[in-house]
Amino acid sequence: SCPSLVLRSGAKMPQVGLGTWKAGPGVVASVVEEALRAGYRHLDCACDYGNEHEVGQGIKAAIDAGVCKREDIFVTSKLWNTYHHKEHVRPACERTLKDLGLDYIDLYLIHFPISLKFVPFEKRYPPEWIHDPEAANPKMEVDPVPLSETWAAMEELVDAGLVKDIGVSNFNCQLLADLLSYARIKPSVNQVELHPYLTQEFLVRFCKENGVVVTGYSPFGALSYASIGMAKEEESVLNNEVIGKIGEKHGKSPAQVSLRWACQRGYTVVPKSANIDRLKQNLNVFDFELSQEEMEAISGLNRNRRYNDPGVFTELAFNTFYPIHN
Ligand code: A2P
């Protein structure tokens, strides 16, 4: 079964969770239900994925069928960039709760350290925006809000019992160090892009030293981005020869090797799959162990290749907050 890492609140976060980004409309609910049936107990969601309502249907179906109880599952969601002003944080969280059909979220993250101009909920949320992102956020206008303001509102969500733990996503060391200096309730998690081509050794160590659990997204590198033209499929770590050979030795797929490597590095991962066999495969990484040499060989593949570096937020909003090297 899947081990967990313990967060500041004492809550346990299963190491492998199901990612729901780009889990398309119409299939998400059944994927979530299947995943819960297959033993997943950790779901990674976000307002921005435009499918929380369907994720909620999947959770409800599984609970109604007696597959699991609410308290057995760990659900993460994320505050979107257009809701950083203090008066928008709680309504955004409440909207997510309503969509997911839950009365609390286990972990709520600031999705990006980027504040964009407010967009009314009815525009931001499906059905409109998923088909037309421009309609949801016409100019991607930056509207600076101090992170301290947003964080204080996040802390109030914990006080109010809406969320158990709070954290951040796409934060570098500098931003995290600053946040840690004043946070009344410290961030429990930092979710960032991590795979063998982007190992972020320093950031991972910094988080560990500061009691911040790391979650790695895009654990296979490139694949999700290939589907939207941001990367080439050949760039996927799943095509890497070194990883392939290590997998053969253990009778595991390249995907399983990548996930196992992440788990042994001591963080949580959220691979996405809409395919039941691959879903099961991705959870089945706890019956083998990579040797020290294998771990090092995989980490040695690092090329500081970040796939999630889109034109979507413009250079202004996105490129500047990441360190070039870690
Ligand atoms: P699919 O949904 O058809 O399984 P990431 O989480 O790194 O962004 O990767 C998600 C992508 O990887 C999706 O395109 C998904 O496709 C694919 N994928 C997920 N699990 C596996 C696996 N075990 N083997 C190969 N591809 C996988």
UniProtKB/TrEMBL annotation:
Alphabetical UniProt keywords: Oxidoreductase
Catalytic residues identified in the record: 49 (proton donor)
UniProt KW Phosphoprotein keyword: no
Residues that bind substrate: 111
Domain of life: Eukaryota
Gene Ontology MF term list: oxidoreductase activity
Residue(s) at site: Lowers pKa of active site Tyr: 78
Coiled-coil residue spans: none
Domain spans labelled NADP-dependent oxidoreductase: 16-302
Family, as annotated: Belongs to the aldo/keto reductase family.
Protein known as: Aldehyde reductase
Organism per entry: Salpingoeca rosetta (strain ATCC 50818 / BSB-021)
